[in-house]
């Protein structure tokens, strides 16, 4: 017998997710869509319908009616609550006409989106997971770097990061000490700034925007904002997807699947400063979505 | 990160994620590649993974998940009935391990149907291709079991082709019974 109960919309009440702009992928997905033939996207355990309205602006409907939706940096952003706590992050480089914007597509990962972001901030895995490109044995040292939280934007900023890379980008053919900066704009959005081979003195941007399907499943979207005019989009996308293809099995084999914010379950050292700061920052925001909740009997 | 995805480096277990190295027996972390200047003494057992006692016997590795490493626990590993009294030449000879879809219950029911007799909880004695055989059954996860098979008395040479053919028929019969069982309503 089919039992119908009132549906609780979305799989979480966590205001960090409900009152935040969350991405559902590239705005180009709306090409050819209409109210009669909407695009669908999954977010926080629900299926959403999205289409381009008569005024050319995106429209989104969730399980209980219309939801606020915006286009930003070429992606669609939806708020599954009443009002977002913070405005969408700024990415000034994305409107620089001298730069290329390349959408590398979304890749599904069977883990908490928080783990995907934390891995993006980590350099220690480069020689082990991305051997030959972002890292190479025996160059495993993570030199000290700085991490702070911007008091105005409440974003995490990591500066002075450097790591030996045999092939730091699609256009690199020699090894060098890559200089990195990291920025965490939202629990599920981060950006990495690295020295641009196409414009010495400037920085290329790689933005990671994670779409939370539920607490243990996500789609990782990647946007490149590059000074680069030699390589095709396909070559740039291929490089990024190869990198992420190496991260995916590692991410999917981390246990517990949800990110622990407390206690001795996972050990950190000073080389993990960005990860440690990210977890403390999440804890400070009262994050529960995608977070490992220890059982009462846990040691 | 699951250490089962790690690799062995310099006799240490190295994690696939950041390459942290763990020593055998103690389970102590002895190297953190991101901090190459960190002396081993600084780690001094502060970072440790859980270890379990292991024992090798009858061509297999045995583990005590309850951590009991006492010698009597190790001798209990020799649960194959002939092993305790057999001379070196007449020790049980390992044949193979089978992965079988089904529950341990279904598996044991099929062993009984093939004339195997239960001697201890998971230990059965029977015959395949007219040779005396021991079977050890273990449930790996829901729906997957292992049957480990030994010739009870190996004297007289290795396992000939008819023995392996009999092993394959045994597995086919077990899985057919499991599939038929799933088709029935409870």
CATH class of the largest domain in chain B: Alpha Beta
The largest sheet of chain A is: 7 strands, antiparallel
Number of helices of chain A: 5
Distance between the termini of chain B: 39 Å
Topology of this structure?
The complex is a heterodimer of chains A (299) and B (186).
Chain A: H1 15-18, E1 21-26, E2 39-43, E3 46-52, E4 58-62, E5 65-72, E6 75-79, E7 100-109, H2 113-120, H3 126-129, E8 146-149, E9 156-165, E10 176-186, E11 189-195, E12 203-214, E13 217-226, H4 233-252, E14 259-260, H5 273-284, E15 291-292
Parallel strand pairs in A: 14-15
Antiparallel strand pairs in A: 1-6, 2-3, 3-4, 4-5, 5-6, 7-13, 8-9, 9-10, 10-11, 11-12, 12-13
Chain B: E1 7-9, E2 12-14, E3 21-22, E4 29-31, H1 40-43, E5 54-57, E6 60-63, H2 71-75, E7 93-101, H3 104-113, E8 117-118, E9 123-128, E10 131-141, E11 144-151, H4 161-183
Antiparallel strand pairs in B: 1-2, 2-3, 3-4, 5-6, 7-11, 8-9, 9-10, 10-11
Helix pairs in contact in B: 3-4
How does this model look, in words?
The complex is a heterodimer of chains A (299) and B (186). By secondary structure, chain A is of the alpha+beta class. Chain A folds into 2 domains: 65 residues, N-terminal domain of TfIIb; 193 residues, Naphthalene 1,2-dioxygenase Alpha Subunit, Chain A, domain 1. Chain A contains 5 helices and 15 strands. In chain A, the strands form 3 sheets. Chain A has a 7-stranded antiparallel beta sheet, with helices on one face. A 6-stranded antiparallel beta sheet of chain A has the order 1-6-5-4-3-2, with no helix packed on it. In chain A, strands 14-15 form a two-stranded parallel sheet. Chain B has 2 domains: 41 residues, no CATH class; 105 residues, 2-Layer Sandwich (Alpha-D-Glucose-1,6-Bisphosphate, Chain A, domain 4). Chain B contains 4 helices and 11 strands. Chains A and B meet through α3 of A and loops of B.
């Amino acid at each position: 017998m089919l039992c119908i109960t009132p549906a609780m919309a979305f799989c979480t009440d966590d205001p960090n997710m409900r009152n935040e702009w969350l991405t559902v992928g590239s705005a180009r997905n709306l090409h050819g869509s209409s109210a009669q033939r909407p695009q669908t996207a999954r977010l926080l355990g629900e299926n959403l319908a999205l289409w381009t309205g008569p005024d050319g602006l995106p429209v989104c409907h969730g399980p209980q009616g219309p939801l606020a939706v915006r286009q930003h940096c070429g992606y669609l952003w939806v708020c599954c609550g009443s009002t977002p706590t913070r405005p969408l992050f700024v990415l000034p480089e994305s409107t620089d006409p001298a730069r290329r914007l390349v959408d590398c597509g979304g890749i599904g990962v069977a883990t908490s989106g928080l783990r995907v972001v934390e891995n993006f901030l980590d350099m220690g895995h480069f020689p082990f997971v991305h051997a030959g490109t972002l890292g190479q044995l025996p160059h495993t040292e993570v030199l000290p770097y700085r991490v702070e939280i911007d008091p105005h934007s409440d974003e995490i900023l990591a500066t002075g990061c450097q790591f030996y890379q045999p092939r730091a980008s699609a256009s690199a053919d020699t090894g060098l000490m890559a200089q990195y900066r990291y920025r965490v704009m939202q629990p599920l959005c981060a950006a990495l700034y690295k020295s641009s081979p196409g414009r010495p003195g400037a920085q290329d941007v790689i933005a990671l925007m994670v779409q939370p399907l539920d607490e243990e499943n996500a789609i990782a979207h990647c946007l490149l904002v590059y000074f680069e005019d030699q390589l095709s989009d396909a070559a740039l996308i291929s490089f990024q997807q190869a990198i992420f293809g190496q991260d995916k099995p590692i991410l999917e084999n981390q246990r517990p699947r949800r990110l622990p914010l407390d206690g001795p379950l996972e050990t950190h050292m000073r080389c993990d400063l960005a990860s440690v700061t990210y977890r403390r920052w999440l804890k400070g925001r009262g994050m529960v979505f995608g977070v490992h909740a220890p059982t009462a009997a846990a040691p | 990160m699951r250490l089962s995805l790690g690799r062995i480096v310099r006799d240490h277990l190295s994690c696939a994620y950041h390459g942290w190295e763990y020593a055998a027996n103690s389970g102590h972390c002895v190297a953190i590649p991101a901090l190459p200047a960190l002396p081993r003494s600084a780690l001094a057992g502060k970072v440790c993974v859980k270890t379990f006692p292991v024992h090798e016997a009858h061509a297999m590795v045995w583990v005590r998940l309850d951590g009991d490493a006492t010698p009597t626990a190790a001798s209990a590993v020799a649960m194959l009935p002939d092993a305790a009294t057999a001379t070196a030449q007449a020790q049980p000879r390992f044949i193979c391990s089978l992965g079988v879809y089904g529950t341990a219950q279904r598996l044991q029911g099929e062993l009984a149907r093939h004339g195997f007799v239960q001697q201890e909880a998971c230990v059965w004695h029977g015959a395949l291709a007219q040779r005396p055989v021991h079977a050890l059954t273990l449930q790996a996860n829901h729906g997957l079991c292992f049957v480990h098979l030994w010739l009870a008395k190996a004297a007289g040479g290795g396992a000939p082709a008819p023995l392996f053919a009999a092993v394959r028929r045994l597995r086919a019969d077990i899985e057919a019974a499991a599939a038929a069982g799933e088709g029935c309503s409870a």
